[in-house]
Amino acid sequence: MVKYPVIFILIKKVLYPSVLLDPEQTIVTTWKSWQNWHRSTLGSHSPNEAPVIKSLEKLKKRSSAKTYEVLSKYIDGNRSLRDLAV
User: Fold this and answer.
1) Is the pLDDT confidence value at 3 over 60?
2) How far apart are CA 25 and CA 31, in angstroms?
3) Residue pLDDT, tens place only, 11-20
4) Contacts of 75 by beta carbon, 8 Å cutoff, 6+ apart
5) What does pTM read for this prediction?
6) Is the CA virtual torsion 26, 44, 58, 73 positive or negative?
7) Taking the alpha carbons of 17, 22, 25, 30 in that order, is the dihedral positive or negative?
8) 53 within 8 A of 86, measured Cβ to Cβ
9) Residues 6+ apart with CB under 8 A from 56
10) In 45-65, which positions are buried (b, 16+ CB within 10 angstroms) versus exposed (e)?
11) Cβ–Cβ under 8 Å, residues 81 and 49
């Protein structure tokens, strides 16, 4: 009879603190943010859209090396405007 080692896995239970939110205040704050978004030049775009750089060559010619590096790294069509804002 072959004996296999017994492996015990301890899963640490993570408890998150409860947070009480005032629903009315949350709705008001969210509504104001949404209104500000629509008044901005980005109002016709959803914050969930992911921007794409159409021409890296033009961007490289028209921006500094650091700006080009940052923009080409993060604006890749996978990160939404919401993600980029954080």
Assistant:
1) no
2) 10
3) 555 666 667 7
4) 51, 52, 53, 84
5) 0.52
6) positive
7) positive
8) no
9) 72
10) eeeeeeeebeeeeeebeeeee
11) yes
